[in-house]
Amino acid sequence: MSQSVSGVLPNNPGASDDHVEIECRSVTSGYLGSRVLHKVSFRVSEPSVYVVLGPNGAGKTTLFRTLAGILRPYEGEVYIGGEPIDRQSSRDRLHYLTHLDGLPDGLQVRESLEFFGRAEGARSQDVDRVLDQLEIRDLSAKFPSQLSAGQRKRVSIARIFLRERSIYLLDEPTANLDPKAAREIRELILKLSRDKVVLYSSHNLFEAREIGR
Amino acid sequence: MATPNADYTSRSLLSVTVRRASITGRFYLVYGSFISSLLGVILAHFSAASFSASYPLFVPIFGVVGSMGGLVVFTSDRTKGVLEYLIAYGYSPRRLFADALLTTMALVGVVMGISDSASLGVYFAEGNPVTSNLVIGVGVYAVPMAFACAAFASTMGVYWTTLSSPRQGINSPVGLIPFIGILPALVTLLTIVTLTLSGPLSTDTLLLVLGSAMGIVAFLVIFLVAGMGRFLRRERFLSPS
After folding, report:
1. How far apart are the C-alpha atoms of A101 and A50, rounded to whole Å?
2. Is A204 helix (H, G, I), strand (E, B) or coil?
3. Measuring CA to CA, which of A32, A205, B121, B154 is 20 to 30 A from A9?
4. Do B3 and B51 form a contact (C-beta atoms < 8 A)?
5. DSSP codes, A97-154
């Protein structure tokens, strides 16, 4: 991926630096020395849904992992809210979701949410709120192996609503879901992430159009 | 706008991870605790001399087997993307590695606690005395060696898991690591048995063999832990799927 995201994510040249939520400055990144992203630059300021569209292997996941601070860029810098991504305060401004459910083995749904809630400093009441908000309270006592793919995804998404953040990085969150479940998940994400900066990656043009409406 | 949480990284997941490892690795935990307790109790009941001589040598092996839940959880977390989410939350790979190691240590503690309580309980209930061999065997060798071997197995397992593609079953790291983990204890046991064939072992020789074994395992563990930052880059903690 070489600056190809610039066409999708506006550089917002008129935006003041005070309001820049995500800034990617000439970032080169990849895995174990191999370079997947080459000098990618963009800025995102206004709360909205931004779709990162590209075929499989284009580097969308690498971009999202770099923005989330999971991968360290070989060159360039990533700033979240004006601060480098390696600062905890930057990480605390964003939520990250992938196509992987990431539900820990050996924990029931409620315990899974408490596990991640603990990791990000949420409270027990937050878990209760999210269980109701996403209508998954009836799944509370189930283990991941007892859930359908759509239910697992719903629980996985519940995690990102435990605490309010200003930025949501959603990397193909509906991958591997059937069309009906995928639409439900997209609607849920859009409904719950109003007034936020949402970066949503997809390789599906139909999905990109729908989410970017 | 999110409110930054100052004490974020102090939020330990260790207790939850230990509980998960106990549940997910319950087969290993029950097997390790039960078999070592059973053998210990039988030996303590029927032959105090045999108990003093052999219990300390085999119990570390079951300590390693019983603690595999820590590695099971780590491997599963990597494959399912849990580690990736935790890194995004700000947990460092080093901390995730430390959690896996500490979880293993906690499980060894459970196995050793159950086994030692049952076996030594029967031994003393039978009216047997505290001997220097027993004190050296259990206190100086068995307990530290069980922890050292489990740390060795866990560290090797983390390396193997993160440096390879996920595999299932007996051919996976979780399937094979117990065999690697028990090697130091097994080699020590065989060395002592071999030395015993040529005559009774003096306490000095016994201490030398046990101390050397412990030293080698401790060195390997320290080497692997210290090399983590160099060999296990953060990309290795991400799910390959």
Report:
1. 22
2. coil
3. A32
4. no
5. E-SS--PPTT--HHHHHHHHHHHTT--HHHHHHHHHHTT-GGGTT--GGGS-HHHHHH
Contacts B95 to A, Cβ<8 Å:
none
Domain boundaries defined on chain B: 13-237
What distance in Å separates the CA atoms of residue B73 and residue B95, rounded to the nearest whole number?
Answer: 15
CB A90 within 8 A of CB A162: no
DSSP A32: T
**Chain A contact set for B76 (CB, 8 A):** 104-105
Identify which of B157, B152, B158 has the alpha carbon closest to the alpha carbon of residue B232. B158
B residues 204-233 near A, CB within 8 Å?
A: 233
* Closest B-chain CA to A97: B85
Pairing of strands A34-44, A22-31: antiparallel
Residue burial A112-127, b: 16+ Cβ < 10 Å; e: rest: bbbbbbbbbbbeeebb
Structure token pair of residue A204:
């599906």
Identify the CA nearest to B156 among candidates B83, B68, B85, B25.
Answer: B68
List chain B pLDDT tens, one digit each, 241 residues.
344 343 334 478 999 999 999 999 999 999 999 999 999 999 999 999 899 988 998 999 999 999 999 999 999 999 899 999 999 988 988 889 999 999 999 999 999 999 999 999 999 999 999 988 889 889 888 999 999 999 999 999 888 888 877 666 666 777 788 888 888 888 988 898 898 888 888 888 888 888 898 899 889 988 988 888 788 888 888 887 7
- Exposure string over B41-77, b if 16+ CB within 10 A, otherwise e: bebbeeebeebbbbbbbbbbbbbbbbbbbbbbbbbbb
Residue A92 DSSP code: T
**From B1, B24, B88, residue closest to A106, measured CB to CB:** B24
Q: Does A165 touch chain B (CB under 8 A)?
A: yes
* Nearest alpha carbon to residue B146 among B212, B216, B65, B60: B60
* Separation of alpha carbons A94 and A86, rounded Å: 12
Q: Check B87 against A164: CB less than 8 A apart.
A: no
In angstroms, the first-to-last Cα distance of chain B is 33
